[in-house]
Every structure is written in structure tokens, then in C-alpha cells.
Amino acid sequence: MKRALLVILSASSAMATVLSSWACLADNPIIQTKFTADPAPMVYEDTLYLYTSHDEDNATGFTMYNWMLYSTTDMVNWTDHGIIAGVRDPHKTFKWADGNNAWAPQTVSRDGKFYLYIPAPKGGRMVIGVAVSDKPTGPFVDAIGAPLVDDPNSGGNDIDPTVWIADDGQAYLYFGHQPPLFYVKLNQDMVSYSGDIVKLDRIGTYEEGPWLWAFEGRWYLGWASTCCPEGIGYAMSDQPTGPWTFKGSVMDGDSRSSGNHPGIVEYKGSWYVFGFNYAISYPQTTTQPLPGGHTEQRSICVEKLSYAADGTIPKLPWWTTTGAPQIGTLDPYVQTEAETIAFSKGLKTETCSEGGMDVTAIENGEYIKVKGVDFRSGATSFKARVASAANGGKIEMRLDSQTGTLVGTCTVAGTGGAQTWTTVSCDVSGATEVHDLYFVFTGGSGSLFNFNWWKFDGPGDPGTGTGGTGGTGGIAGSGGTQPTGGASNTGGTSGGLVTGGAGPAGGAEATGGRFGRGGSSAAAGTADGGMVPSGGTGPTGGAVPLTGGTTATNDTGGVVSSSGGAVSPAGGSMSGGVTTSGGWPGAGGASTSAGGAPASGGAAGRGGGVPDVDAGTTGTDASSDKGGCACVAAVGPSASSDSLAVLGALGLLALGSRRRRPPTASASRR
Ligand code: FUB
User: Fold this and answer.
1) Which domains does the chain have, with CATH numbers?
2) C-alpha 141: how far from its chain's center?
3) For a surface tag, which of 4, 213, 557, 598 has the fewest beta carbons within 10 Å of its beta carbon?
4) Is-contact 477 490, C-beta < 8 A?
5) What is the pLDDT of residue 289?
6) What is the pLDDT of residue 464?
7) What span, in angstroms and rounded, lies between the C-alpha atoms of 399 and 224?
8) Which atom number of ligand 1 is nearest to the Cα of residue 276?
9) Per-range mean pLDDT, top range of 147-151, 176-180, 284-288
């Protein structure tokens, strides 16, 4: 379904003129294929899962049938997992729900199960339900077949559940629209509670959307602050039940927005705040506020947050267009879902007959950006899983912008059906090192083809690259000493052969970089060559400078690293293991066949920079209703003073009328 720009925009040629002058969006908002709101991040194993509510494409007020799931391992490339629960067939998880208000969710894990808490309508009230799954991706089933909370004292506003499990095992559930705010203690089973539902006095600017968490012995409660526009406020306490001390704003409200809703989480050693804006349904500048009316076509954003020494949170500016920085890089030699996207223009996603999701509704000129792709020493071929009920089209692969260097073009022919899948392939040249990768789709009119997954091959692939045979020749010279701070260099000291192969050079990180998937040590060979540079081994993503990795001496089989992070067992062939001076570990990184575990992914050092902002997205699709960037690069003469004046006047009118109505269980709350 096409996404409609606001009527007010399409109705005004002056507005259309101004629209073409808006600065382009970059990687915030993080989801462009759908409207999403009420972010609820959850970390499980090495992945950050983001549960969201979902504004329908044609929503004006709240039109919300289901909850969605996205995931990331690098904070910028997000994989779409589709609908994980809902209140309407064919995704009616909660049979008792009798309306279309699938509002703000949160999922928490406990003892190998995942509990999804949601507000939904029942009998003219908003109540809280809970579903359970064995996996973060679902399927979720209603845990108790009835609401978990239906509080007669809440005025029908049992909304926005948030749960945190304290270190002593006690789980707390907060919820409620202001006034008031409530909490209750959940039982160990997470699907029932004990004791009274406690009503709290209003805290500071509390409006709705509570988010409970603890950090370093302190308790925090965030929320959407006084409407409208809503920012993000917060309070602190020594205990999960308060008393709470209001601490101000994590982020102030902004005239470009109406609502907001925090989701705050720690991931790979950093803290992030999620919320939403309206920048895709209504591209904005700092001087053009959101127009009036009930505009619930929201888009989730993310920023990094920090803590001061006293535990308070330094205030952030309004959502940037760049969002959070990338952690590590993306490995193009691993099969990747097409719906793993940093930013996109136009296209949509859908359930795929081969499992998971695919990218669909791809039209001429639309694109997908995948950020921070590490081609290492180079890709030579590309393959894609595609299906086309029409005549297909082409997939252009470009570097760093949708008009950037063309490194390959794959032709997609008709396959006879939109879910009749085939794999196409084509040659690639010029794709080395780290770039933002753009898949630019070209062809005739209408929907060209569907796109399920993609993968590159070539010498840069640590799994098949030339850099791999570390070990067999890797005599660890006598007396080899271990690298400072590194792993033991047993091979070196013994003077024996590095029998296990190893010296997985690529496992080393670049200066200032991070470990990638592969990590460092070889499985079978224990890196006798002494390959673990200072900073340790783990692929956990921690940035580990290679300062100590340079001191491996007398190590014909050992580690030698440069400031750029290259590490190579001299005896082993390591052509792929070279790291550039920018700090990107080489592909081969890895040890290989000879017994060393391939550091697939090698290290993903991140010394080099990747542009954060999309350059020059096209401005031809201002009227497109499929999301993405509908603008040209900068304010130009097309934004006449007349048109700006018209927009300004409308904006002021809109501001005057923009107030939210009190919540009810009806479809319109703002
Ligand atoms: O998305 C529906 C409602 O709007 C949520 O439950 C509130 O927090 C607000 O974001």
C-alpha cells in the first residue's frame, strides 16, 4: 500500500515547492518501510531486538493492528522480522481484544522465555495483556487468555506496560497514562502478579509511556513528557518502587513533533534512547513545525545517551538525522536478508514464502542503503534471491551514495510469480574495503521484482579468501615472546611448529577498531603464533586498540601488527590478512583450513570513517507515498519566500490547534 503524504501538503503547490527544498533524511528514523512507534528495545545474546507498535500507512489518528519486530547487531542496519503479534486477524494474538489499538509494547526475557506485554482495548477500556514465546522472534501466544491487568481504578487507561527484573529476581510492572502512574509486582511466572496495584502521584512531567530500568545501583523511570509536543522526561530513585525524584528531560519536546515514547537500553557497552518523530510522513526543517491535526504516522529514532558521574543523564538535542554510530561493520560475504536496511527509499517489506521477510513494491529509482560494508580485499561476484511477476529489472550496486561508483549490475528477469524465487548472479569489480552499499533498482514502471537475500563472493571473503593458510608454515621461532597483553605465545617460546595452523591475523583488530565476528584466536591452533594483540580476544565488539600488538618479537610465526592493525604470521600466507592504515583488518584475517578456525568476519576494525549522512538523495519523488527521502539536497531558490510564508502561516495555524484529546479506548486519542 502506498503511503500518503499529508493532505495538507499535496493540496498546496506552495507546500510542494517547499517540500523539494527540505534537507534529506539520513539514517534516523531507523525504519522507513513502515510507520513505527513506541520502541521497546531488548538485548538477547549478541542482538538488539526492537519491538514496536505500527501505524498503518493510511493512519491519521491511531490505526494500529499489530506489533512489529526489528533487530540489529550494529545499531544502523536493521533487519525486519515482520509482525509478531496483533489484535486483528490474521494476527489476532489476543482473542479478547475488541479494537484496533495495538499500543506501546515491551518484551522481557526470563528463564529462556520471552514475555510480550501490550496494551489493547477491551470493553471500552485499555487493559494489559501478556504473550509468551520461546524465541525473541516469536511466535507469541497469549499467556493467560485474558488481560493480565484490568485495573478498575485506572480510568480505563492501563496502557504502556514496562517491566524490569531486579537483581533479586523481583519483576516490576509500571504502566498508565497521566494521571496516574501505577506499578505492581509480577510473580516469578511473569504472567500473574501479587499484591496491590499501587498508584503513584504524578512525577514531574510524566505523561505516559513509562520505561523502567536500573543502572549501577540506581533506578530510573523515563516517560513521554507533558503533551504536546512530548519530549522524554525521567526520574531517579534508590529503589524500584520510589520515591522518585524528577530529574528533567533526556530530550525536550520539539515543535516538529507531537508525541514521543522512550525505550532505553544498554547494548555492547553503550546506552541508547529510542523514541519517535514524524520525519518520514512529514519531512521537516527546524523552522517548520508539524502541522496540526491527528497525525499518527510515526517513525522510530535512536540516539546514544550517557550518564554523568552522579547518574543523571545529560540532555540530548532533538533527534538527529544521523542517529547512533555503527558498531563494527557488516560482512557482505555472509548471506544477508534484503530487509536488512540502514535506510531505504520507497520500497516495502512483506512475508516471504521462503521464510522470513522479503523486500517488495520495488519501483524504478528506489534504493536500499546498507551501511559500513567491509569488502576487505575485494568482491568479484554477487548473487541475489529474487522473484518477479512482471518483467524484472536491474539491481545496481553502488558505493557510498545512490549515484556513487557502480561496482556491478545484476539483471533480474521475470520469474512468473511474485513469490517464484530464483538466484541471479553477476560480476563485481571495484568493491574493496569499507563502504556504504547502495542497491539501486532500475527498470520499467510499477513493481519490478521482490528481493529476498543477497551475498557477495571474492577474495575478500575470509571463508574462501587467499589469506587463509596461516599455520603450516608458521614456525614460531625460538624464543618468541608473546605480544604484550596478548595471548600466550606458546609456539614462540617452544620454538616448535605452529601445529594448529593459526596465527589468525585477521582476528586482530585495527587501531581503534573493534572485533568482528571472527574474533581472533584460532580454534584448533590456539594461535601459537601469538596472535592476540593487546586488548584481548573477544569478538564482543569492544574497541581494543592494538597498541600492544606490535611487540611480538622473534615471531616468525607470531604476530606482527602495525598501527593499522595488520597482523600476520610471517610463516603463513596472509595476503588477505592485511589491514589498511585506516584501521580495517584484512579479510583473511583468519586462520584457516590448516586447523585454525577461520576468523570469519575477521576483525572489523573501525578506524576508517564512513559518511554518516546520505549524500544527495534524489528529489524527484516528493509525492511518493512509500517513504524514504523525498527531497533534494539543500534549501535552494525553489523555496520562494512566498511559499515559505504560506507554510509558516499554516504552521502557526496548525500549532494553535494541535492539542491532544484525553485518552479513551477509541481509535483516536490525540
Ligand atoms: O502508540 C499509541 C500510544 O501513543 C502509546 O501507547 C503511547 O505511549 C503513545 O505513544
Assistant:
1) 33-305 (2.115.10.20), 336-457 (2.60.120.260)
2) 25
3) 4
4) no
5) 59
6) 65
7) 39
8) 10
9) 147-151
Give the CA angle between residues 142, 147, 149 to the nearest 5°: 130
Grid look-up 569499507 returns 434
Is a pLDDT exceeding 50 seen at residue 639? Answer: no
| DSSP, res 514 | B
Confidence band (pLDDT; 50, 70, 90) for 16? very low
**Stretch (H or E) spanning 125:** strand 125-133
Instruction: Give φ, ψ of 519 to 5 degrees.
Output: 65, -155
Residue 106: CB within 6 Å of ligand 1?
A: no
Integer CA distances (angstroms), 213 to 48, 243, 262, in order = 16, 15, 12
Q: For 571-599, what is the mean pLDDT?
A: 29
The percent helix, strand, coil of the chain (3-state, each to 5) is 5, 35, 60
d(CA 530, CA 548): 12
Q: Respond yes or no: is residue 38 known to be catalytic.
A: yes
Q: How confident is the model at residue 178 (pLDDT cuts 50, 70, 90)?
A: confident
pLDDT digits (tens, 9 = 90+) for 223-237: 999 988 899 999 999
Residues 520, 549: contact at Cβ < 8 Å? no
CA distances from 668 to 61, 231, 237, 324, 547 (A): 5, 20, 34, 32, 58
The residue from 27, 56, 207, 358 that is catalytic is 207
β-pairing, 125-133 vs 181-186, is unpaired
Tell me how far CA of residue 164 lies from CA of 42, 221, 237, 448, in angstroms. 11, 10, 14, 45
- Residues 258, 61 contacting (CB under 8 angstroms): no
Give the pLDDT band (50/70/90) at residue 294: low
In order of 13, 590, 593, the CA distances from 524 in angstroms are: 68, 12, 10
In this structure, the number of other CB atoms found within 10 A of the CB of residue 656 comes to 9
Ramachandran category for residue 656: left, alpha or beta (phi over 0 → left; psi -120 to 50 → alpha): alpha
pLDDT at 225: 96
Mutate to test the pocket of ligand 1, among 60, 159, 207, 228 (most ligand atoms within 8 A of CB): 159
The C-alpha cell at 342 is 540502514
User: How many Å separate Cα 540 from the centre of its chain?
Assistant: 17
To the nearest 10°, report the CA torsion of 234, 239, 243, 245.
-30
Among 103, 175, 207, 274, the mutation site with the greatest number of ligand 1 atoms within 8 A of its Cβ is 103
SS3 494: helix
Residue 524 has pLDDT above 50, yes or no: no
pLDDT at position 228 is 85
